[in-house]
Amino acid sequence: MLSFCIFLPFMIPSSVFAMGAQILFLRLPFKNAYLSVFLSHVLYSLPYATTYLTEGMRNNIKRLEEQGRVFGASGFYLLFKVTIPLLFPYLIPAFMMSFILSMSQYILTVLLGGGKLKTLSLIMVPFIQSGERNLASVYGLLFLLSSFLLFLLMEMLLRGLKRREKVC
User: Which of 62, 72, 104, 160 has the fewest beta carbons under 10 Å from its own?
Assistant: First the structure.
């Protein structure tokens, strides 16, 4: 049942998800547009991130956790010394996929942001619809550049962690 709930956004269109999220956030006691957009983007990208992390868990992590328990390691120690370091190569693609999905969401941001929140896709889409391809292509390049810089940052972080791991 939990797996079904996690992968539910795969099965419904984003516009339907956005309308349901709007109704949900209108019923909640807080009326913060930024928080509702953030939470809806997290909920929308959760199945994609979960897919990457599930693939990481299918590998040898369960076996290595069991070996750690046999040797007497506690759950907290196993989480920070075994599971997270082994999942880190899967955390980066999960984060990147979530970032790209969140950056490209237009409907969720329009409906839940109520015009208060401006994202790159909210600025870019009107230029595409009006036929101003020059400005739309500039914003498209900004989108690509921001994604590329984040990929580069994550790659540097991963290399730094691998270098630190070799030293320790």
Answer: 72
Q: What is the pTM of this model?
A: 0.75
Structure tokens that stand for 13 in this block = 């269109």
- Per the CB < 8 A criterion, the answer to whether 41 and 108 are in contact is yes
Tabulate helix, strand, coil % of the chain (nearest 5).
85, 0, 15
Q: Is 158 exposed, middle or buried (0-12, 13-18, 19+ CB in 10 A)?
A: middle
Rounded CA-CA distance 35/41 in Å is 10
Task: Please answer whether residues 109 and 119 qualify as being in contact, where contact means their C-beta atoms are separated by less than 8 angstroms.
Answer: yes
Q: Is residue 41 within 8 Å of residue 105, measured between CB atoms?
A: yes
Residue range 84-102, pLDDT digits in tens: 888 877 888 888 888 888 8
Angle between helices 14-27 and 33-56 (to 10 degrees): 130
For each of the domains in the chain, give its residue range(s) and CATH number, in order of start.
Answer: 2-167 (1.10.3720.10)
